[in-house]
Design goal:
Largest sheet: none
Protein name: CHASE3 domain-containing protein
Pfam family, one: CHASE3
Mean pLDDT: 84
Number of strands: 0
InterPro entries: CHASE3
Organism: Rhodococcus jostii
Strand content: under 5%
Length: 183
């Protein structure tokens, strides 16, 4: 079972991978159809980052991890994706697009992946902590319920004073079997 923040992080990862796939496809082919997943991923990532801002607002480490993801995404977009897309739009790339650009692109995207991993780990920790709180509350409720039941039984076992037993009005009704006969 995944919580909304965990689902949003998983969807965010997919949105960034879609961007990378679209960007690479466009750079290699020059076909603008490859920019569709890039643009859709960019749109989706923007929405998910906004939602995660709200979902993780109360947790400092999660906020820090989210900010690191945002920075890594911005770095990859500004230093690799957009410049490579702009260069391809300007015309065909030389036969060897150049190892430094490709290496930089990969390193920047790997950093983004690592930051997403850290955010994913933090949301997992938050969910685990929440489940532990729920489990603890259930255990406490079970103990309290069992204690209340035992307390009720203890009161029924209290010794009745002899004077009260001597009064016929305080006598328990005679025991009857399942057919209603006194026994």
């Amino acid at each position: 079972m995944r919580c909304p923040a965990q689902q949003a992080v998983a969807m965010l990862r997919t949105a960034f991978v879609d961007q990378e796939t679209g960007q690479r496809g466009f750079v290699v082919t020059g076909d603008p159809r490859f920019l569709e997943p890039y643009d859709a991923g960019l749109d989706q990532a923007t929405k998910l980052l906004f939602a995660l801002d709200a979902d993780l607002a109360d947790d400092g480490p999660a906020r820090a991890a989210l900010e690191a993801v945002k920075q890594a995404a911005q770095d990859w977009t500004a230093q690799a994706a957009e410049p490579e897309i702009a260069a391809r739009r300007a015309g065909p790339l030389p036969p060897d697009p150049g190892t430094p650009v490709t290496t930089s692109d990969k390193q920047l995207f790997d950093t983004l992946r690592n930051r997403l991993d850290a955010l994913d780990t933090r949301t997992d920790e938050l969910v685990t902590a929440q489940f532990q709180k729920i489990h603890s509350a259930q255990r406490t409720a079970n103990i309290a319920t069992a204690g209340a039941g035992a307390g009720g039984r203890d009161r029924s076992r209290r010794r009745i004073p002899d004077a009260a037993l001597a009064d016929p009005a305080n006598q328990p009704p005679p025991h009857r079997d399942r057919h209603g006969r006194a026994g």
